[in-house]
Structure to design on (40 residues):
């Protein structure tokens, strides 16, 4: 479980640092879930 947690945190940091988080269309929950699940 700890390894999964570390991978999730690493993916979150990569998503934030790459600035791709700003490309998610506001107000579209489904698109956000798909986009974020690719990294986390």
């Amino acid at each position: 479980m700890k390894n999964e947690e570390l991978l999730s945190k690493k993916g979150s940091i990569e998503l934030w640092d790459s600035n791709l988080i700003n490309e998610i269309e506001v107000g579209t929950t489904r698109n956000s879930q798909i986009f974020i699940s690719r990294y986390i």
